[in-house]
Design goal:
The protein is built from 9 helices and 8 strands. The protein is α/β, with parallel strands linked by helices and 248 residues long. The strands form 3 sheets. A 4-stranded parallel β-sheet has the order 3-4-7-8. GO terms for molecular function: ferrous iron binding; manganese ion binding; mannonate dehydratase activity.
Length: 248
Amino acid sequence: MKMGFRSFGEEDDPVHLSEIKQIPGVSQAVTALYDVAVGDVWPKSKISQLKQQVQASGLGFEVIESVNIHDDIKIGLPTRDQYIENYKQTIQNLSEYGIKVICYNFMPVFDWLRTNLHYQLPDGTNAMAYEPNQLPDDPNEMIQSILNGSKGFEMPGWEPDRLARIQHLFDEYRNVDAEKLLANLKYFLDAIMPTCEKYDVRMAMHPDDPPFPLFGLPRIYKSRDDMLKIEQLYESRYNGFTICTGSL
């Protein structure tokens, strides 16, 4: 097992790579390109710069979290094939710079959600928390709460261009239930797995975060039984899972 630590970008993350390097046992930085639009191919030049930045701090560069999946793929729109081709090219590009694992999710609309970004633990430290009874009925109210709590930090999955399309996304997902979302995941896996196998890059699907119903949106990775279903969609050692202790 190799220990890694998440980095949200040297320019934006207050915890710098040089500080991650000081954590006992940590040998890897888990990071991403945060300035590439979802659905676009990750340019080799930017991947190279990111690798150099990580390795200059003395950390390994083998895991990406995340290469996000365009909603057209999750919804199953006719435009999904072009976005899948872009994703396959990104997998190939990342493999050329030593990436072995890509974390991703297949959650509709929201990459993750919490009701409190500054929950105080008994020892005085802060953590993020989710309480179902604190989830507002209106998703826009919840979005505003997240933005207020982030204090100006642009968090992955909560980019302004994405938030501007929230109502449109809810409309697009109106006819997507769990069965259809799972079928769209199979379509995606069928398309990318040969590329993963060719270039030795494992996909690690992140659980629904949190693994509870949200605003009527379908959830397909919230339990062990769900994992077995996803595993059977495409039986390959490259079709794997992220075991997030904050979600399962």
